[in-house]
């Protein structure tokens, strides 16, 4: 220990003017990283309608985290005591890491299996010339291979020519081999459809949850002795970024002209989406009955674990199935923006996650997620 202290002192005394300048600059960068990390984590707790800019930092949590790791490594290589700045930043990041990274207790024995998938209107983002019917058939094959009991789909659209919506929804159910389906014919703005091997029924109209509004489709699943539970297939508003805007947002090599052309529209869209999702999640949670009913909320939430949306659902008593029974970062967005987990399966205290899996099926700009679970008791 004494030898290490002497070595650090010797290196510091011999450090050139250039070395001291480098350490100073690294310390400044470390302080910037500390502020960015603090703002990123705080974004979970502040309603975007009050101060939206924290949400922008939350979106870049992993980038900010890796930035601080790199700065810490450089400060340690320089034998600088300023490394404490980056260490504090990484300690601040712990709550975000806990919500974003999982070493869950995956177990066998789940009696029921649910899959959720945003199918991008049956478009193939890698091959735009493929027909919707071909894409739908391939997706249906993938779903059948994974054998879920309940399949929740977002961004469903008519994929068979000369076919109405009802017939198309029923036809996809036949492709899945699932005899039951449900979607809200008046409030189905997000293309939310629930398919099931077990009987589905709409909720009683006197329950606010049954109104569904814009956030999703709600049905009751009767799996007999395995349990009776509610499923909400949810799709909160997206950023609605164009391909060009996503490229500018994700690519550091953009020209000044591209940044000027798309930068303002990107900020405006992010701001509006964050504010609208905070309203949607508040409305959704206010409608959910908190009376011991087994409830699963799943779908495309378009928000990361370091977000106000995520924190509000967790605060309401729901458990993130991935954190409970998944592994790693589990990112679910398959587009150009990296490391985004925006698709979830939540359960209340009556739902017991046993295992959680992300399926790397190419086609949509999302990956399907799947959870095996048990129901503690039925209605």
Structural account:
The structure is a single chain. The chain is an alpha+beta fold. The protein has two domains: 2-100, no CATH class; 103-375, Endonuclease/exonuclease/phosphatase (Deoxyribonuclease I, Chain A), CATH 3.60.10.10. 42% of the residues lie in helices and 18% in strands. The chain has a six-stranded mixed sheet. The longest helix has 32 residues, at 256-287. The termini are far apart. The model has no long low-confidence stretch (mean pLDDT 87).
- For the record, give the distance between the C-alpha atoms at the N and C termini, rounded to a whole number: 64 Å
Please list the strands of the largest sheet in the order they lie side by side.
4-5-3-2-14-13
CATH architecture of the largest domain, by name, is 4-Layer Sandwich
Summing up helix and strand content along with how strands pair, one would put the structural category as alpha+beta
Percent of residues in helices comes to: 40-55%
Largest sheet: 6 strands, mixed
CATH fold-level name of the largest domain = Deoxyribonuclease I, Chain A
| Beta-strand fraction estimate | 15-25%
Mean pLDDT: 87
Separate helix tally: 12
Regarding CATH, which class of the largest domain?
Alpha Beta
Poorly predicted runs are none
Overall strand count: 14
> Could you tell me the radius of gyration in angstroms?
24 Å
Helix and strand element order: HHHHHHEEHEHEEEEEHHEHEHEEEE
Relevant CATH superfamily of the largest domain: Endonuclease/exonuclease/phosphatase
Count of the domains: 2
Overall shape:
globular
């Amino acid at each position: 220990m004494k030898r290490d202290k002497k070595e650090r002192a010797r290196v510091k005394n011999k450090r050139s003017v250039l070395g001291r300048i480098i350490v100073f600059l690294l310390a400044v960068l470390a302080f910037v990283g500390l502020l960015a990390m603090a703002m990123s984590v705080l974004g979970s707790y502040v309603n975007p309608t009050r101060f939206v800019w924290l949400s922008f930092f939350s979106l870049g949590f992993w980038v900010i985290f890796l930035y601080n790791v790199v700065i810490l490594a450089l400060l340690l290589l320089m034998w600088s005591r300023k490394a404490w700045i980056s260490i504090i930043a990484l300690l601040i990041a712990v709550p975000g890491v806990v919500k974003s990274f999982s070493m869950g207790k995956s177990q066998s024995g789940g009696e029921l299996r649910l899959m959720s998938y945003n199918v991008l209107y049956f478009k193939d983002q890698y091959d735009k010339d493929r027909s919707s019917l071909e894409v739908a058939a391939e997706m249906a094959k993938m779903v059948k291979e994974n054998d879920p009991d309940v399949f929740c789909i977002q961004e469903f659209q008519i994929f068979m020519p000369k076919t109405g919506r009802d017939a198309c929804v029923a036809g996809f159910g036949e492709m899945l081999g699932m005899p039951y389906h449900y979607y809200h014919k008046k409030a189905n703005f997000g293309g939310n459809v629930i398919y099931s091997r077990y009987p589905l029924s709409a909720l009683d109209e006197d329950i606010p949850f049954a109104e569904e509004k814009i956030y999703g489709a709600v049905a009751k699943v009767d799996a007999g002795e395995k349990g009776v539970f509610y499923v909400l297939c949810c799709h909160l508003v997206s950023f609605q970024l164009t391909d060009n805007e996503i490229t500018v947002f994700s690519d550091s090599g953009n020209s000044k002209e591209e940044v000027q052309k798309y930068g303002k529209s990107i900020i405006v869209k992010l701001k509006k989406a964050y504010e609208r999702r905070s309203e949607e999640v508040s409305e959704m949670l206010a409608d959910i009955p908190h009376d011991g009913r087994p409830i699963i909320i799943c779908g495309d939430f378009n928000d990361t674990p370091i977000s106000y949306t995520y924190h509000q659902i967790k605060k309401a008593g729901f458990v993130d199935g991935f954190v409970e029974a998944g592994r790693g970062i589990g990112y679910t967005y398959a587009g150009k923006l990296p490391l985004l987990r925006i698709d979830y399966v939540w359960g209340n205290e009556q739902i017991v996650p046993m295992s959680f899996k992300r399926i790397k099926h190419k086609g949509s700009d999302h990956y399907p997620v799947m959870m095996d679970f048990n129901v503690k008791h039925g209605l």
